[in-house]
Amino acid sequence: MLQSIVLSVCVCLLHTVAASGPQSYQKLDFTNVGFAGTYNSVKKFTGITNNDTCNCEVGDKEWFSGVNAPLAEYLSVHFRGPLKLKQFAFYTSPGFTVSNNRSSSDWSRSAYYDSSSKTANNVTFLNHGGEASPCLGNALSYASSNGTGTASDATVLADDTLISSDEEYIIYSNVSCPKSGYGKDCGVYRSGIPAYYGFGGTTKMFLFEFEMPTETEKNSSSIGYYDLPAIWLLNDHIARTSQYPTNANCSCWASGCGEYDIFEAMNGTEKNHLYSTFHTFQGIEDLGTGIQSYGYIARNTTGTMKGGVVFDSSGNVVSFISDDTTFGQTVSADAVNELLAAIPQDETYSSQLMSISATAPTTSSKSNGISLTKMQNGVWYYIMAIFTAFTQVFLI
Ligand SMILES: *[C@@H]1O[C@H](CO)[C@@H](O)[C@H](O)[C@H]1NC(C)=O
Ligand SMILES: *[C@@H]1O[C@H](CO)[C@@H](O)[C@H](O)[C@H]1NC(C)=O
Ligand SMILES: *[C@@H]1O[C@H](CO)[C@@H](O)[C@H](O)[C@H]1NC(C)=O
Ligand SMILES: *[C@@H]1O[C@H](CO)[C@@H](O)[C@H](O)[C@H]1NC(C)=O
Ligand SMILES: *[C@@H]1O[C@H](CO)[C@@H](O)[C@H](O)[C@H]1NC(C)=O
Ligand SMILES: *[C@@H]1O[C@H](CO)[C@@H](O)[C@H](O)[C@H]1NC(C)=O
Ligand SMILES: *[C@@H]1O[C@H](CO)[C@@H](O)[C@H](O)[C@H]1NC(C)=O
Ligand SMILES: *[C@@H]1O[C@H](CO)[C@@H](O)[C@H](O)[C@H]1NC(C)=O
Ligand SMILES: *[C@@H]1O[C@H](CO)[C@@H](O)[C@H](O)[C@H]1NC(C)=O
């Protein structure tokens, strides 16, 4: 009862604000990112090439907590066409807080791709060209130089490679995973696949120079994402085990191990609007919808865009587009703050994520330091969830 009252009040307010529709911004800001929660990793899979036996089992709940959690874990970087990637860079900093130079240290680049010079430092291009499985979907494979074919070993994309609607590739680091295994760093994955770590750390920054030209092929019902380009981040376990499973237990995604969409066109009506979205359970129940910015970044279909996302040390996550983005080996803390501060307030859309209080039980720890009891917040959890979804709206 209480829940439905809260819901109806919120829905009214949503309509009031929503009447004008979402607007275009250069910067999409999220605050209070990170919470204590759990997800389930895949423990094992069996009979994976046989339609009748293909099955996955998940393990016990694993707790995470802290700033940016669970996105403080290793993340892989995903691209969907129509898209050309000109540059990609990954940075870490010992500590960085948005709009606070004094408590911020410089960023150092630990992975870099440049299309024109075919530079690929600490970058491995993969795609879904591997062996098919009825419950896991296709395994990972090395991408060939056009991004969509497969190769027998790591291959740098050809300059100016354009992938079309629905086509995807992924960037992982070049650091090899340990053997497949539940509780090991890279989790359970199929034998024979290229398995690398993604890009880890609480405080991190991903930068991109890219084009998202309008699709030139005709639309058809066989194209799932027609003219809907995207750049997004996943917990690096997801694609390694199964990015598109038919059984939700074949991936940690459904239990909330983490996705952040940096620039994503959502549907044909808004194909030139790039939204940022958290697919984590930080105060929501519907992971598929996630926590989306109520504003978007405009897709430039004729020019090159530069920008990316900063995950700072204080729970601020900022997606931005700026021609001032630079890709040097070091980018000073001042330079990043200056770039972000140069984007005016009226070009900034801010949302605050919900505070979730859950504490991992101190008993029954396993050797991996993760303990295993359900979060039982009952009704309050639902009420908080409803509020969170709308916190964004109030902050316009
Ligand atoms: C695989 O099994 C599922 C249900 O078990 C069934 O719906 C599907 O048609 C089967 N596919 C093939 C190719 O046999
Ligand atoms: C510090 O950050 C601001 C933006 O937050 C920037 O404008 C300024 O130039 C930076 N540098 C110094 C030395 O204050
Ligand atoms: C990974 O990339 C780094 C940076 O480019 C390079 O120094 C190193 O040799 C690469 N390692 C492997 C195994 O390719
Ligand atoms: C991409 O390369 C593969 C070989 O790696 C080839 O089979 C495929 O036809 C190419 N795709 C396009 C669109 O050229
Ligand atoms: C490559 O990236 C990984 C993952 O973030 C990192 O641990 C490693 O230090 C990087 N390698 C180099 C040479 O920077
Ligand atoms: C997933 O696993 C849970 C228990 O771990 C089980 O109850 C559920 O039926 C499984 N789902 C599928 C689709 O197999
Ligand atoms: C398209 O996506 C936007 C952003 O998620 C959403 O607000 C809008 O309702 C969607 N439109 C349609 C027709 O689905
Ligand atoms: C492409 O076609 C699908 C239906 O098959 C439709 O939902 C979508 O809006 C279309 N996209 C564009 C950009 O027209
Ligand atoms: C798109 O980029 C081109 C080239 O940089 C620029 O001239 C144009 O103004 C941009 N369009 C929009 C809508 O920002």
TrEMBL record:
Origin: domain of life: Eukaryota
EC number: 3.2.1.39
GO biological process: cell wall organization
Key words of the record: Cell wall biogenesis/degradation, Glycosidase, Hydrolase, Membrane, Signal, Transmembrane, Transmembrane helix
Name of a matching Pfam family: YJL171C_Tos1_C
GO CC annotation, single: fungal-type cell wall
Span of the signal peptide: 1-19
Residue span, Cell wall protein YJL171C/Tos1 N-terminal domain: 27-93
Top EC class, one word: hydrolase
This protein's record includes keyword Cell wall biogenesis/degradation: yes
Cell wall protein YJL171C/Tos1 C-terminal domain mapped to chain residues: 105-338
Catalytic activity: Hydrolysis of (1->3)-beta-D-glucosidic linkages in (1->3)-beta-D-glucans
InterPro entries: YJL171C/Tos1_C (IPR018805), YJL171C/Tos1_N (IPR018807)
Record-linked PANTHER family: CELL WALL PROTEIN YJL171C, PROTEIN TOS1
UniProt similarity note: Belongs to the PGA52 family.
Protein name (database record): glucan endo-1,3-beta-D-glucosidase
Provenance organism: Saccharomyces pastorianus
